């Protein structure tokens, strides 16, 4: 009976979580931690459609799974139990326990969700020993994803079900007057389905694409699974997610590696699906006026020439390819290169600039009536400097003056801050945070409190917005390392690494089978985690697939032995 209930819970999670879009609103106190850790709507009301009720559902499901868990154990289950305990401790000792428990606004991936993931993983290690139960859960995922993908394709072609009258009434619980006119939009021809962000749709679609491809090749209903595979691929490329594309390419490499001699067996089906996939790409790229092709340029983002700022005695240093030292004198400011040589200020057309190679992009002018206030510009970037009490100050995002401070950065990423849609900047400021609280981390979703939000120089330089709230690192491994600590990160890396190595060896020497496509799907998702965060709409599906993959790899290992 317990196994049936656990199977049913896993089916419900796999089916409902990707589909669950429901409006949630709450009036917040302006002084609360939730108010200051995410954008809030009018009159201090917090709105969420994509995460809050998913976490609630996960919390209930996770409790049921944990209560039904038996005593049977193995190394994988022990790892899951240890990670669960570390999650609880991270929440208890978090910078903000409230945020750690529920997560921040808009994400809601707190300890409740994280512990539920481990409950899914642990339960799956038992439930998925039976093929029938694996099929039930995967079928639930496939049926649910068809709805998600149809909504996504409609979004690509300009019709968003979530915004039309019927869809909006459904996702507001027929109380649309409570939420007003809310628009979900991520640019032209962008697919996010029911996952709030196109990046998360990319992570979700790459899992389901390889499951669909596996069933297309190995099952009888070729037409049905072939159409599904094309639908999943359309959502993958239509999401514009470069992380999803990297996962797709990594999965294809594994697929070709595993096929080996089996390619003769499946060459007809492969030829058909490859031609159709190419047709889907060409059709969608043409519809979007070749935007998809431009979006897949992984080298985008120009190299940065300046990186950061730090205070020194009676001055500041702007660090870059050529460091610029700025010091206050009796009646003005003076500029020096990184060798301490003075740089002269020249004027042309009423504009003052630094007259030396490597520094000529800098422009200087007085700002306002305060003779100690300067506006320093470099290309499109402007930064205010106020000298007072032998210190330099700048404006924060609210217009108030705050001392210039040094922000730690990972200097190997200097110059690459614009790469990966500004991920280079976020990672350069995030990596040093791994060592600030190495044991238990800052607490789930407390990354927003750990990140140097007062890096007004860096935010202005790379985002053009001093008030930009950085609430996630766009890298799952940085996310859990900072939020949960290095022990949690180490166990995760060992868990993923052991699975990958064992699975790779067994799949290369074995025949193509169900385990091959589960392995490829889970590995492709792991690749996306290098550029995406965990999120409550996709992570439960992964932890189901991951535990399923572990069971299948172990079964294949036993057959070899």
TrEMBL record:
Alphabetized UniProt keyword annotations: Membrane, Transmembrane, Transmembrane helix
Transmembrane segments: 7-25, 51-68, 80-104, 110-128, 140-162, 201-218, 223-240, 246-263, 486-505, 525-553
Presence of the UniProt keyword Membrane in the record: yes
InterPro entries tied to this protein: WaaL-like
Cellular-component GO terms for this entry: membrane
Keyword Transmembrane helix belongs to the record: yes
Name of this protein: Polymerase
Source species of the chain: Propionigenium maris DSM 9537
């Amino acid at each position: 009976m317990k196994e049936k209930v656990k199977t049913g819970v896993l089916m419900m999670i796999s089916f409902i979580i990707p589909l669950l879009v429901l409006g949630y609103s709450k009036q917040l106190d302006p002084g609360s931690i939730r108010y200051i850790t995410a954008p809030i709507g009018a009159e201090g009301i917090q709105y969420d459609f994509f995460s809050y009720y998913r976490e609630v559902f996960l919390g209930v499901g996770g409790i049921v799974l944990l209560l039904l868990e038996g005593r049977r154990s193995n190394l994988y289950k022990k790892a899951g139990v240890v990670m669960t305990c570390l999650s609880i401790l991270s929440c208890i000792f978090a910078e903000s326990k409230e945020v750690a428990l529920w997560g921040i606004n808009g994400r809601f991936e707190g300890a409740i969700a994280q512990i539920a993931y481990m409950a899914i993983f642990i339960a799956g290690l038992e439930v998925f020993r039976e093929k029938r139960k694996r099929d039930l859960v995967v079928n639930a995922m496939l049926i649910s994803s068809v709805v998600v993908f149809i909504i996504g394709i409609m979004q690509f072609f300009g019709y968003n079900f979530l915004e039309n009258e019927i869809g909006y009434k459904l996702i507001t619980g027929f109380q649309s007057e409570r939420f007003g006119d809310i628009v979900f939009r991520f640019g032209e021809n962008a697919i996010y389905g029911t996952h709030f962000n196109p990046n998360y749709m990319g992570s979700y679609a790459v899992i389901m694409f390889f499951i669909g491809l596996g069933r297309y090749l190995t099952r009888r209903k070729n037409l049905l699974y072939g159409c599904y595979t094309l639908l999943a691929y359309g959502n993958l490329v239509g999401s514009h997610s470069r992380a999803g594309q990297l996962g797709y390419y990594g999965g294809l490499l594994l697929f070709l590696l595993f096929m080996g001699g089996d390619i003769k067996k499946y060459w007809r089906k492969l030829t058909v699906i490859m031609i159709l996939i190419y047709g889907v790409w060409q059709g969608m790229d043409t519809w979007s006026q070749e935007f998809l092709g431009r979006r897949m340029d992984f080298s985008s983002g120009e190299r940065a020439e300046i990186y950061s700022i730090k205070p020194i005695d009676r001055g500041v240093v702007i660090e870059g390819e050529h460091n610029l030292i700025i010091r206050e004198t009796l009646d003005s400011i003076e500029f020096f290169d990184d060798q301490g040589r003075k740089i002269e200020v020249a004027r042309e057309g009423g504009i003052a600039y630094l007259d030396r190679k490597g520094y000529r992009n800098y422009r200087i002018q007085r700002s306002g009536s305060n003779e100690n206030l300067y506006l320093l510009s470099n290309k499109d970037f402007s930064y205010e400097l106020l000298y007072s009490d032998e210190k330099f100050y700048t404006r924060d995002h609210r217009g108030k003056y705050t001392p210039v401070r040094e922000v730690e950065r990972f200097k190997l990423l200097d110059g690459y801050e614009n790469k990966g849609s500004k991920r280079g900047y976020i990672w350069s400021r995030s990596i040093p945070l791994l060592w600030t609280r190495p044991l238990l981390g800052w607490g789930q979703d407390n990354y927003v409190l750990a990140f140097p939000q007062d890096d007004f120089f860096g935010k202005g330089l790379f985002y053009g917005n001093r008030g930009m709230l950085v609430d996630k690192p766009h890298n799952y491994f940085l996310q859990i390392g900072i939020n949960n600590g290095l022990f949690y990160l180490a166990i995760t890396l060992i868990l993923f690494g052991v699975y990958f190595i064992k699975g790779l060896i067994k799949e290369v020497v074995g025949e193509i089978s169900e385990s091959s496509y589960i392995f490829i799907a889970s590995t492709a998702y792991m690749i996306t985690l290098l550029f995406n965060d965990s999120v409550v709409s996709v992570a439960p599906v992964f932890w189901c697939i991951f535990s399923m993959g572990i069971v299948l790899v172990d079964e294949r290992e036993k057959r070899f032995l």
